[in-house]
Fold:
Amino acid sequence: MSADAAPVSAATPDASAGKLSRRLAIALGPIIVSLALAGCVLLAVGVNPLAYYGFVVERGLLSPLGLQQTLTRMAPLLFIAAGLIVAFRAGMWNLGGDGQFLLGAVAAAASAPLLVQTLPGWLALLLAFLIATVVAMVWSLVPALLRAYQGINEIITTLMMSFLGVSLANVLVKLAFLDPSTTVPQTRTLAVSDRLPRLFETTITSGLIFGLVAIVVVHLVMTRTAFGLKLRTVGANPRAAIHAGLNVPVLTIAVFAISAGLIGMGGAIDIIGIQGNVRADWNPAYGLAVIPVVFLARMNGFAAIGFVFLLSVLSIGGESAARRLGVPQHFTLVLISIVLITLAVAEYMGHRLNQARKV
Amino acid sequence: MEQTQAGPAIVSLEGVTKRFPGIVANDRVDLDIRAGEVHVLLGENGAGKSTLISMLSGLQQPDDGRILIDGVEMPIRSPSHALSLGIGTVFQHNMLVPTLTVAENLALGGRWWQRPRIAELTARVAEIARPLGIDINLGARVSELSLGEQQQVEIVRALLRDSRLLILDEATSMLTPKGIAELGALMRRLVERGLAVVFITHKLGEAADFGDRVSVLKLGRKVGEITSERLRMLERAALVDEIVAMMFGRQAGADEISIPPRAANDDALLEVRELSMAETSDAPGLDRISFAIGHGEILGIAGIDGNGQKQLAEALAGQRPTDSGSVMLAGQALDGLDVGGRRKRGLRYLTDDRLGEGTVGTFPVSINYFLKQIGEPPLWRSGMERTREIDARAIELTRRYDVRTPGISTPVGRLSGGNIQKVLIARELADGARAVIFNKPTYGLDLANTLATRQRVRDIAGQGLAVLLISTDLEELLSMCHRIAVISQGRLVGIVSNGDRAGERVGRLMIGLAA
Ligand SMILES: Nc1ncnc2c1ncn2[C@@H]1O[C@H](COP(=O)(O)OP(=O)(O)OP(=O)(O)O)[C@@H](O)[C@H]1O
Ligand SMILES: [Mg+2]
Structure:
C-alpha cells in the first residue's frame, strides 16, 4: 500500500494478446482460490458453499430483477470509487468515506423533499445534490487542513472524522430532520415520482449513468490533464512536488475536497435515486467496502468499474443469500478480504518465483 | 604505490550477465576480487558498474553466469545474505531512512528483540570515524543532513559490520579533497588487514592513487584490466592516459582551465543582500549572506559539504523560507515569490538530490523533463496533456543532452545515476533561463560527460547569464569560475578572484585562515 504504486501514465503499449491472457490468469486464479477458501469458512459454519454461491450468482447476476438491483447498487459505489481514486493516486489515504457518504446522504434527504415542493423537479434534485456535495467537502476540511499545514497523518484523522460523521448523521436524522408523520425515526421521504428517473422500462436508476460518467471523468483527469499529473506527482514524491514549485498544501486541500465531494455525491445519488429517505442508524458501510476494490483495480478507473460490478453482484446476491441461508450479510466483506489476501500472496509468490528462476 | 600482498580471490564473477528490457547491463563479466587489494571499477555512465554491484550485494540476481565465494559457487539471495557473507556496500544513491536519526539508522539491522545499544555504538562509531576525519552527529535526523554527510554515514555503517569485502559505489563523489585522501588511506589500512575493497569512481586520479588493480567496463562488457604489477610500473600520467583510452577508445581531452570572457554589460544580474535564516538543531542556518553576480559571470561557492550550501540554494530557489534579506534578479525583487514565480522570472535551480527531489522515479523520462512546467503551453493546452508534443520535445532533449535511455517512456528511476543527472540538466537549461544555480552539477558524471557539462556551464555564462556554481570539487571551481566565495557554517567567509594562487587562498579560507 505505498504511494509509488500509482501506475505510470505512459506505459509501453506492447500488451500483446499472450500477455493479456496471462494477466487474466493471474487475476482469476486467486479469485478461484479465495472462493474455495471462503467455501471452507461457510462449511465450518454449516452452510453448503455451493448453495451459497449458487444463490449469489442467481440473485445477483442471472435473475433479471437481481441484475437490475445490482446495476442500481453500482451507482453510489462508483461515486465512492471515483472519490477514492483521486485521493489514493495523490497519496492521501482518505479512509473517512463512510462519514462523508452518510452526511451527504442526510443532507440530500433533508433538502430534496422540501425543495421539490417549491422548485421544478430537476432543479430541486440538482440543488439537493450540490448541497450534499458541499456538506461532505466541508466535513473533509479538518483532516485536509491538518495534513496540509501541520503534516498530521490523514489516515487517523479521516477515520476519526468518519466515526464522528456517522454519529452526527444519526443525530441529525433523529433530532433535526425527523419526519413527524411516521413513527419510524427517519427523514421525510422523497416520493418515487420525484426521484431520479429510471432507465427505460427497468428498475435501474439513471444514477448509474452519472456514476459511470464520474469515474470515467476522474480517470481521464488523473491520467490526461495537468491537474491530475500534479496530484500524482504529490502522491509519488512530495519532495519533488515542492522542488517543482507545486503548491502542495493547496493541492492537498483540493484533493480532500474533490474526494469527499465525490463520495458525498454518492450519498446524494443513493437518496435521490434509490432510497428516498435516510432511516436512523442506517450505515451501509460502502466506503470501507470500496477501498479494497480500488486497490484491486490498481486505482485505474476502468478496472474499478469492473470490480465495482463484482462487488455489487456479491453484495446484492449476498443479501438475499443471507436472508435464505442465515449467513450474516457482512460475509461479502469476508469474501472480499480473502480475495485481497490471496491476491497479495499470489503476487509475492510470483515475485519469488521470478527470482528463483534467475538464480 | 605500496607493496601489498594480493591474496586469493574471495569473490569471483564468472560470465555474469544481467539484462534489462532493451539493454544488456552486464555482458559476460569475469572479475576476481582478492583479499588485500583495492579493486577499482571504472566505466562511463551507464556502463553497468552499479548493476554489477547490485548482484554482489544481493539486490538483483544475474541472468547468466555465476558468483563464487572462496571458490565455491554461491548465489547471493538477498541483501541480508550478502551481509552475512561479509559483503558490505555503500550504494551510489543513499539507502538511509530519512525520518530516523543517524544513530537509529546505524542500529538498523540489529537483532529485533534487542534494544539497540546506543552507548556502545557511539564508541565504535567514534573509533571508526575519527581516523577518517568524519564528524557525524549521531542525534541528527537524516533528512536534515546534506547528501555528503549522508554518504559519510553510509561509509561508517558499512565499516561497522566487519565486512570482508567492502564495496564503495561512487562514495567519494561528495567528499572534500581532504576527505578523499583520508578515505584512500583508510582503504589502504583495510586491505593491509586482509580485506578486499571494490572502489567505483569517475575520477581517474583516485583510481591511479588508491587502486591495486583496475578493471574497466564499457557498455556492459569488461574491456580491460590493469594488474597490480603493471600498475606499479606505470607513471601516474601514463596510467591515466591508458585508462582513458580503454574507457572512451580515444583521447578525451584533459579538463582545461578555461574561464569564459565576461559580457560587456557589467551590471549585477543576481543580487543577494543580507540573506539570513535561523539554524536548526541539525542544520546550519544562513548568516547575512550577500553577493552579486554580473551578466556572464560564474561565481563559485566552495566549502565543506553541509555548511549551508543546500540551505542557500533552496532559499534562492524559493523552496525554503528565509528570516530576512532580499534577492534581486535583473533589478526586480524576488522576495515573496514562490518556486514557480521565481522560475518564471528566469531563476533556475539544479538540485544535487536527483532521486530525492529532482525526479519522480516511477514517472517516465519524458514527464520528468517537464515536471517544473506542468500545465504550461505548448506541452499542455487548457490543462490537457498533449502527448505528441511532449514526446517530440522529450526525444529532442534526450538527443541533445545525450541521455542514454531505452526510451522516453522508461521510468526515470531505471536509468543510471549519470543519466538521471543529464535529465535534470536538460530540464533546467531548456529555454528562458537568466540565472542558474548549479548544486554539484557534475557529481556522478563520467569524465566525458563532466567535461561536456562544464562546457555547458561556461556556454551559459557566455550567453550572458549569471551562474552560481556550488561545488565541493575545488578543481572544478578553479577551472571555470570568475570568483570563488567560501562558505563556512552558513557564512561567506571570503571571496577570492580566480587567478594566481587562488586555489591556495580558497583552501586557507576553508580551514579558517585569512586568505
Ligand atoms: N532496474 C533497471 N531496469 C532497467 N534498466 C536498468 C535498471 N538498472 C539499470 N538499468 C540500465 O542498465 C544500464 C547500466 O546501469 P548502471 O546503473 O549499472 O550504470 P553505471 O555504470 O553505474 O553508471 P553511472 O556511472 O551513471 O552510475 C543503464 O543503461 C541503465 O539504464
Ligand atoms: Mg552507478
Q: What stands out?
A: The two ends of chain B are 34 Å apart (CA to CA). The longest helix of chain B spans residues 177-192. Residues 25 and 51 of chain B are 7 Å apart (CA to CA). Chain B has a mean pLDDT of 85.
